[in-house]
Amino acid sequence: MSDRDNLSSGQRSGRRRNRRRSGNGQRRSRSSSAKYRRKVEEKLFGKKGDRARLRMVERLREAHGTPGLQRVFREYVRGYGLPADFDLLTLLLDLGDEQDIVTVLGGIEELRESISPEEKSLLRKRLRNLEMATEFDEVADATVDLLERL
Predict the structure, then answer these.
(1) Are 124 and 150 in contact (CB under 8 A)?
(2) What is the value of pTM for the model shown?
């Protein structure tokens, strides 16, 4: 019979917990933890996965339905390019500028292969409404083109 057989399960798990700690029970400093977190975020989300970009995404969502949406959108695009988030792009169809809406439609078109069937159905309805409600010919044409490709 080994020592392991004589130990209760609680004693065994306590030993495992103690073994899992790195080094001599030392913890990482805050700065090294922050560096590690940044590296992980960069690997997961790429260089654009930084906190500032995520704050800008939140600002975009909060600005939806307000006059400041246009300004926040342009600031985001200037700093990070067009968002690659389908839900965010559909919110941005409410922009007031013709060129910005066409740009957003182009972004949606790039993502069309990754859109689920349910999302495509909702997008078709949204695009039909946009086509009928828009006063811009270029937006209506881009909307019709995208509808044909879906």
Answers:
(1) yes
(2) 0.64
Q: What is the dihedral of CA 47, 85, 40, 36, to 10 degrees?
A: 70
Inter-residue contact 65 to 94 (CB < 8 Å): yes
Residue (of 88, 103, 93) closest to 124 by Cα position: 93
pLDDT digits (tens, 9 = 90+) for 64-95: 989 899 999 999 998 888 888 899 999 999 89
Alpha-carbon distance 92 to 94, whole Å?
5
Q: Which residue shows structure tokens 């922009």? A: 95
N-terminal to C-terminal alpha carbon distance within the chain? 68
Helix axes 137-149, 98-111, angle to 10 degrees: 10
